[in-house]
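The instructor's notes for this session suggest beginning with a concrete chain rather than abstract definitions. Hand out the sequence below and ask the class to guess, before any prediction is shown, which regions might be ordered.
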Amino acid sequence: MILFRRSLLARAGLLLSWLLASLAFTTSLQAEELKIEAKLVWGTDDPKSTDPSHKPVDEALAKELRKTFKWKNYFLINTQNGIVPNRGTKQFQMSKQCTIEITELEGPKVEVKLIGEGKPVNKTTKALSRGEFFTLGGESKNGCAWFVVVSQQQ
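After discussion, reveal the predicted structure:
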């Protein structure tokens, strides 16, 4: 009977060790670095941007932005790609005036801080899945606006 109990305890210990190892492995698979694409976009009702280097965003993105925002036209100012380390933070310099700081959180969620002209403008925490995006932004002069479109690359 004592031998049976020891054998049972030994098996329970092995099972517990196996479960803990499996849990640790699964958790490490879920937490991963994020491949991020950030686009700085100008929203306006003007048919053209004042800067000839700004090109219209692709029609699919423009259509999605028009569902939420009031402007007719959206121009791409800059695109930045980078990797946010697992549970780490990375800054993306979108322009001289605009920086975003992205921190990977549990979830999968990210915290994004938008900094304009060196001052905090906006901070949000959002779920971010591959193939989806969200925007942060602010108003500008002349009834226009700028946005940063954040997405996780495939």
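Then share the key points. The helical segments are 2-30, 59-68. Confidence is low (pLDDT under 50) at residues 23-29.
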